[in-house]
Design goal:
The complex is a heterodimer. By secondary structure, chain A is an alpha/beta fold. Chain A has an eight-stranded mixed beta sheet with strand order 2-1-3-4-6-5-11-7, sandwiched between helices. A three-stranded antiparallel beta sheet of chain A has the order 8-9-10. The N and C termini of chain A lie far apart (66 Å). In chain B, helix 12 crosses helix 13. Chain B is globular and about 85 Å long. Chain B is built from 24 helices and 20 strands. The chains are: A alpha/beta, B alpha/beta.
């Protein structure tokens, strides 16, 4: 019985109902593997979700699961984490669920640093309601609700998170087993809100929207895999690097061989650097972009509660108030 | 002390002359008597066992503080009482205006007091606006204590007075006592070196001192309270205590005692026991903590600030050692969702709001119904629609509570009748929620939040424990998912399985579940079964609650008055006065099983409500009776006199 659990031990008996070819399958696989890798216990792991394709996730994981209402998963998960801080609580959300209807809860969860592992499946489209543009859709997205192209400016999940005071922000690609697996393990280990944006391909309504940098054939030139303390190198044989251009106050790509000394070393605790990396177009920055440990909300909650939520007195000790009297 | 023209006029034309006739010009019993004798006369002749005092001034005058301390003093003196804080929505409305008037009304006396009183017998008015607003409410012959210093041309103009009301005949039918309160107060605190505005802030305690003298009360409890409250600022503490004593001494000065009344009110004959004064918010907070103690689970209270619900949040932050935690959420939806999360995690999740906030929580209530999780939702009703009258009371969220959700989403609804009863209903709400694994709505209202009354403290240890349904013994045929939905045959509540329990891993949520396994199910027959099950579960609550009793009168007859919520007080008094029967509902949904039979024993069922007839509709819907609705939506509680008048009119058959 004490044999370590493997990925398939975290797969529930329920039939998966995503479209064939959906990026969610790859994410599910990576998550169940990560759970096995980190030695998670099914009974003390909970997946909480809102509404949308991504939010079906809890049904497919063999842990406790709560499929709540649209946008509110972070709020439900906050109450759960306060009730039982020992649980590993994951929140699965999408770009519509997390950044549109539930944007307020995401904002406040991030600033409080509640100990939740939030996975935002970003496919830049509303899938479950059949393809309307979402808050992350690029301006001009043609969809059933924007036949002439959307006019909204999209929100950047990373900039939103850092603006809200997030202490952990990471990015990964749905089908990148290594990169996603590594990010998931770090997200799990973080004490506080870990917020991970996963570029997820919606095969039906927004196919290949991220192909410019997810296509394996160009991956070396379009993806910058960040590691704390290591230089920001990418391209064939790490031939390219990223440097800070002080005149433009921006990042730029340089020839790594020529300007080795100029190449930046990743410092995940540097919030200014994180903001620049989030906006980097090609290559796209992946991995843990920002990590700044801080006290998790539930820890502060219990530390500030005089009895740690335990009952040390009876109502009988409080009922009288300052003024009471007896009637014989 | 100045005896002004109005005072002189009152001396000449006494309105309450004899027992037979008001304004009997031939009688003038007050001539040559002292005020104290006058009030004895009034009490004797009108058989007044109680007296209504109204304190009124600017929002910044400290009226509510003064009133609540006077209420505590009343309680300690052994009188029954009821209070009605009546204040504007603005924190500090412009000074001196009529819409900025903050008032505190208290009814005290020897007989059972269940309302703050229809018409004040004593008014303390700090400025002309307070006088103007309160004047129409006063009992003829009422005693007015006015602050002379505030009757400046500017303040008179702000209150809309063309002429000084102290000088014309406006106040002829009242007994007017004026004092230079601001001036006398500043004199009293002069030695403390305060600024004029700091010193001026002590005038509520100066006036309270005078009031305590008039009612022959001890200063010590108030003084002790000031010492505690202002411990951090010794100068203000000492100045307020000095002001309190100065006001008291002002009353006691020999030359004044002839013209200022000292009031003697009967002591109440109350059931033996230990009492305290309590507001609805205090009682509800203690009730929630008691529910946690009885269920042996922590209580997590999640809310977003809203008037008039916030006092409950503030109270609960002081009960942490009872295993109570508070979470101030980012909005109303997050508040209920966090409470649901807490319940899912095994704590007693509670949220609270007022009508507009409850509307926002509606979708999440459906989630708790679907997921079969316990939850207490408290609604401090206020005037609406929309933002409406945030500080004024109303009972207009009954439809919202019983019928106001998408789809067939039934849940139990309770209502507390008085401030003290908020304790019992909080315990009852949690008991039902845990037994049946359902969200429960508790309706209270703005009036109860701040209104205080004497409360006989219960022995919490003797209350029945709140048992949650245990996890059924694992039979081999059932997997964990099925165990999660093995419902109790009587209460239809499922076991309260929480994450962290090994071997019981399962999924839940807002999608329709299979009745047995809890898996997602779109099966037509299953949805029919689940819908019927959810209704049957709520209906089953009626099997666990007591039969409906009668508060007053016979169990059948000509007329019964049916009430719910904070209208208990005025209906009780009106029924007592008229001899009508009185039934008061605490369980609104489902209704007690015997209610239909009980009400059909009467020719007429009169339902007074501070809405347009919502309980009347519910009774028509559920009991197939034809109640008569009596509606009032002015933001003010019912007056006993208007209720009694309506009951009499119904009796005579000439009701409008």
């Amino acid at each position: 019985m004490n044999e370590p659990l493997v990925a398939k031990d975290f797969t529930s008996s329920q039939e998966v109902r995503w479209c064939p070819g959906c990026g969610d399958y790859a994410i599910l696989k990576a998550v169940t593997k990560a759970l096995a890798d980190v030695g998670a216990k099914p009974e003390s792991t909970v997946f909480v979700s809102g509404i949308g394709c991504a939010s079906r996730f809890p049904y497919y994981v063999e842990t406790y699961g709560f499929h709540t209402i649209h946008g509110r998963a972070p709020a439900v998960a906050t109450g759960l984490k306060l009730a039982n801080p020992d649980l590993d609580v994951w929140v699965v959300t999408g770009d519509g669920d997390g950044l549109s209807i539930g944007g307020n809860h995401l904002l406040h969860t991030l600033r409080r640093n509640v100990g939740l592992k939030i996975l935002l499946f970003n496919n830049e489209i509303y899938g479950l309601t059949k393809g309307q543009y979402s808050p992350t859709s690029r301006t001009g997205t043609v969809s059933p609700s924007s036949p002439a192209g959307s006019i909204d400016t999209p929100v950047s999940p990373g900039q939103f998170a850092l603006g809200a005071g997030a202490k952990f922000f990471a990015r990964a690609i749905d089908t990148d087993k290594t990169g996603l697996g590594d990010v998931l393990r770090q997200a799990h280990a973080f004490d506080g809100t870990s917020f991970t944006e996963i570029f997820q391909n919606c095969i039906v309504y927004n196919e290949d929207v991220f192909a410019a940098f997810t296509d394996r054939r160009n991956a070396a030139d379009t993806q910058l895999h960040l590691r704390h303390g290591e230089p920001m190198l990418f391209g064939e044989n790490n031939s390219k690097g990223v440097r800070f251009n002080p005149e433009a106050f921006a990042l730029e790509v340089v020839d790594a061989a020529e300007r080795r000394g100029d190449v930046l070393v990743h410092d995940e605790a540097n919030a200014v650097l994180a903001r620049l990396l989030i906006d980097l177009q090609l290559p796209v920055a992946l991995g843990v972009i920002y990590k700044q440990p801080a006290e998790a909300f539930e820890r502060a909650f219990y530390a500030n509660h005089p009895t740690g939520m335990r009952r040390t007195k009876s109502v009988a000790d409080f009922i009288k108030g300052p003024n009471s009297w007896k009637v014989e | 002390m100045r005896k002004n023209a109005a005072y002189q006029a009152a001396q000449r034309r006494i309105p309450l002359a004899c027992a037979n006739t008001l304004n009997c010009a031939s009688c003038d019993p007050l001539r040559g008597t002292t005020w104290r004798q006058y009030l004895f006369f009034v009490n004797k002749n009108r058989n007044l066992k109680s007296i209504v005092v109204r304190l009124a001034g600017d929002s910044g005058d400290g009226i509510q503080l003064m009133g609540s301390q006077f209420a505590v003093s009343t309680a300690l003196s052994g009188r029954d009482f009821a209070t009605f804080p009546d204040y504007p929505a603005e924190i500090r409305a412009p000074a001196g205006t009529t819409f900025g008037v903050s008032a505190y009304q208290i009814n005290l006396g020897g007989e059972p007091i269940t309302t703050a009183g229809d018409a004040p017998d004593v008014l303390v008015a700090f400025n002309p606006a307070a006088l103007k607003v309160s004047l129409p409410m006063l009992q003829p012959g009422a005693l007015l204590v006015l602050n002379n210093d505030s009757f400046t041309p500017r303040n008179l103009a702000k209150a809309g007075y063309d002429a000084d009301p102290r000088e014309g005949n406006t106040l002829d039918q009242f007994q007017v006592v004026t004092a230079d309160i601001s001036h006398l107060n500043l004199e009293a605190v002069r030695s403390f070196g305060l600024s004029k505005s700091e010193g001026g802030r002590c005038k509520n305690f100066w006036t309270l001192g005078l009031l305590l003298w008039m009612f022959d009360r001890q200063l010590e409890p108030v003084e002790a309270w000031i010492r505690r409250r202002l411990a951090a600022s010794p100068t203000m503490r000492d100045a307020n205590i000095a002001a309190l004593h100065a006001g008291h001494a002002f009353g006691e000065t020999a030359e004044l005692s002839a013209s200022l009344p000292q009031l003697s009110v009967d002591r109440a004959r109350m059931a033996p026991g230990e009492y305290r004064g309590i507001t609805g918010a205090e009682a509800l907070a203690l009730g929630m903590a008691a529910a946690g103690e009885l269920a042996d689970r922590p209580v997590l209270f999640c809310s977003y600030p809203i008037t008039p619900s916030s006092p409950l949040l503030h109270r609960l932050t002081r009960l942490q050692e009872l295993g109570v935690g508070t979470f101030q959420a980012e909005d109303e939806i997050a508040a209920i969702c966090a409470a649901i999360g807490a319940s899912y995690g095994g704590m007693i999740g509670v949220t609270s709001s007022s009508g507009p906030g409850i509307a926002l929580k509606t979708e999440a209530m459906g989630l708790a119904v679907s997921a079969e999780l316990p939850l207490l939702i408290v609604n401090w009703q206020r005037g609406g629609p929309s933002t409406g009258l945030p500080t004024k009371t109303e009972q207009s969220d009954l439809y919202q509570a019983v019928y106001g959700r998408n789809a067939d989403t039934p849940l139990p609804v309770l209502a507390a009748a008085s401030s003290g009863e908020c304790f019992d209903m909080a315990v009852e709400g949690v008991r039902i929620a845990v037994r049946h694994m359902t969200p429960v709505i508790l309706l209270v209202d703005g009036y109860l939040s701040n209104a205080s009354e004497p409360w006989r403290m219960p022995d919490v240890g003797s209350l029945p424990r709140i048992e949650s349904r245990p996890v059924p013994e694992g039979s081999d045929e059932l997997d964990a998912e099925m165990l999660a939905y093995q419902r109790d045959p009587d209460s239809l509540g499922r076991p309260w399985i929480t994450p962290g329990m090994p071997g019981l891993v399962h999924r839940t949520g807002g999608l329709e579940k299979d009745y047995v396994t809890g898996h997602i199910s779109y099966d037509p027959d299953n949805h029919q079964r689940m819908t019927e099950f959810r209704q049957a579960k709520i209906d089953s609550v009626a099997g666990f609650i007591p039969d409906q009793g009668i508060e007053l009168g016979d169990s059948s007859g000509e007329i019964v008055v049916v009430g719910w919520g904070s209208t208990y007080g005025p209906i009780y008094q009106a029924a007592r006065r008229t001899g009508a029967s009185f039934v008061h509902l605490r369980h609104i949904h489902p209704l007690p099983r015997n209610l239909g039979e009980l009400l059909t024993g009467f020719d007429k069922v009169l339902v007074p409500e501070m809405n347009t007839g919502q309980l009347a509709t519910l009774l028509r819907d559920k009991l197939a009776i034809q109640p008569i609705s009596y509606s009032k939506v002015s933001g003010q509680p019912f007056r006993i006199s208007e209720l009694a008048g309506r009951i009499e009119a119904e009796r005579k058959g000439d009701a409008v």
